[in-house]
Amino acid sequence: MSSQPLLPLGFRYSAISAGIRKDGRIDVALIAAERPATVAALFTRNLVRAAPVLVAAERAARGLASAVLVNSGNANACTGEPGLAAARDTSAAVARALGVAPEQVLPASTGVIGALLPAAKICDKAEALVAALSPAAHEDFAQAICTTDRWKKVASRRIGDAATGPVVLAMAKGAGMIHPDLGLLRPGTEQVAGVPHATMLAFLLTDAQVSRETLERALIAATNVTFNACSVDGDTSTNDTVIAMASGANSTAVTEAALTVALTEVCDELARSMARDGEGAEHLAVIEVRGLADDAAARQIAKTVATSSLVKTALFGQDANWGRLLAAAGRAGVAFDPSRARISIGNERIVHDGLAVGAEAEARAAKVLAADSYVVRLELGDGPGVAHYYTCDFGHGYVDVNAGYRS
Amino acid sequence: MSSQPLLPLGFRYSAISAGIRKDGRIDVALIAAERPATVAALFTRNLVRAAPVLVAAERAARGLASAVLVNSGNANACTGEPGLAAARDTSAAVARALGVAPEQVLPASTGVIGALLPAAKICDKAEALVAALSPAAHEDFAQAICTTDRWKKVASRRIGDAATGPVVLAMAKGAGMIHPDLGLLRPGTEQVAGVPHATMLAFLLTDAQVSRETLERALIAATNVTFNACSVDGDTSTNDTVIAMASGANSTAVTEAALTVALTEVCDELARSMARDGEGAEHLAVIEVRGLADDAAARQIAKTVATSSLVKTALFGQDANWGRLLAAAGRAGVAFDPSRARISIGNERIVHDGLAVGAEAEARAAKVLAADSYVVRLELGDGPGVAHYYTCDFGHGYVDVNAGYRS
Lengths: 407, 407
What we know:
The structure is a homodimer. By secondary structure, chain A is an alpha+beta fold. Helix content of chain A is 32%, strand content 25%. Chain A folds into two domains: 266 residues, 4-Layer Sandwich (L-amino peptidase D-ALA esterase/amidase); 120 residues, ArgJ beta chain, C-terminal domain (Ubiquitin-like (UB roll)), CATH 3.10.20.340. Chain A has twelve helices and 15 strands. In chain A, strands 1, 2, 3, 4, 5, 6, 7, 8 and 9 form a nine-stranded mixed beta sheet that branches. The two termini of chain A are 30 Å apart. Chains A and B meet through helix 9, helix 10, strand 13 and helix 12 of A and helix 9, helix 10, strand 13 and helix 12 of B.
């Protein structure tokens, strides 16, 4: 999205083709920190976790890392012990080439589930990957991690107000099996899937000097309202991974608040881009729910509406079909009074106190649905609970991508 | 499905066109009992309930009813007080023509949400509808209640072993917004939606002599493992209704067990037909989950797999994509050990102890997916918990039906 992103000091990037993908596109990518960086990482809460998730979660728990090694074309999920060995072998090969300990390299993978990662292909390219490292090759990295994405996803922000202050650069990929449910995978933290979500991968790099605890809190806060509120198809991947690394190379002090704002802004830009780039999608729909007893109730409704096949096919058809919106809200398992419901698409109110405003309002709302992005707002009472969810329309493109994905 | 169903004594049927549908097809249908019949009824637990659901639930609670009045082409949902008046007025007009009290007539509707039911059109036809009643017109009834259904759904069974014993005749409709979550809508009973589900309507008629309590228990037992385990698109309708009526016209004694078996068999036949006839669907997929701690856990996984867009598009593509099956199971919020998972399609085992059996097995399994119907079996441990869910593939047909439904 950004052609000239802000680049944090202390990181280099590279990407090459190792022949993991059949089409010969670049498919292995590396981020390397000049010295061990502070790390915080969140991983899928799907009970079925890919080998790189298990390996990276264990390593990230140490709080310091030097590199992230990512491949597309193969998820290395449901591959058992050989899969774990493949994740360890490939990251060890890169660690050797970098001259760091294997535990300093965090692996991540995306692609087909169930096929063993051809580790030798990556190991053979480890030296070349490291030799190619450059502080300006972030775009290559962002391209290499893409699978069904139609565009690269890059965002950046300066943290705080200082003109020479630290920055954050974020790169991510979608575009299917997207319904992230990310959490800490650390002993003693909550691990069971709460909600459904694709493989999304996101990497946030900053040159700020921050503690691991601060980075982790800011990352969790940013993720919960962005990636964890984003759905293409309601299917949570086995591989979802968000890794934040702080090099500390810029010594300008930043507050946790400023860090949280910057991380949230870049994650928000990427989550919107991810939903907009959902497989086959033509629109970004922001489902906004207001007036519930609390945010959790609002979020449950927003998620149910955002993942409804009938709602999403109506959005594809540019049909302001509020009956489907209200019916989806009604099955979310949350109490509200349907006779008080108000629904708007963009600025067009189409339901007032549970009843249709009229055919003309719906016709105007249908025109809003032709836009690249729009807000669908459900006001369901006068409680303080609010939430949003990013989703997309659901049409023939999604079926085309997913009915023949492995062939 | 059955060209010569068994017909219970004591009921007559009719159907006419009242001009509710734009295409001029028959759209209003009536079942009339010769004398007040014992009634049990289950309704959608969606928080948003159509006017006919509210009216029928109140009337069914009395335990006796003489008639069921159904229209297609308009759901009479989200229509407020005028909608309630339309449901009462239309059933009152039919009650007058039948010579019974208005409370003896249970209304049901299916069609577009949010448009006021043109009650006058139905009231004008009330006399004609009653005049057309015939004990042999059940096929007309079954046709009139269809919306996007490609075929009528009729099933019948004899209850118990006696050759001249009572029978049950069941008629239903699908085919979208199908994910029934049916329960008693009676004060003091559970009313909040627990799970997502189309408008499905089903009417079960028997000439057995049974108490209302027995009929209700048998209906709940039958519904929970059939209609409530059936999903086309995961969207629970505002109008889902199952009504059972017992005329008592056949005095051969039946046991509750025999009644439950017969109701379950007809509901099972209709639920399978409904999933197979899901909008745009080409296959009935029976998702069978085994080996969990209890049936509720197995059911939660079966439901999550049955409603996964990625699983359903893979079934459309006839791709034995077990990675998507396992990933969906893993986000159901239920504990199991993925490394022990076994997955079969038909008799083809494709996953053993969490790992792929191999490309040849997947190729054989893909051939099974070409069949009209098949079983997808996930064995996830050695616990006693089992459950099944009926679902269908998800392809271009569904998008075509639902992207332009109201236009």
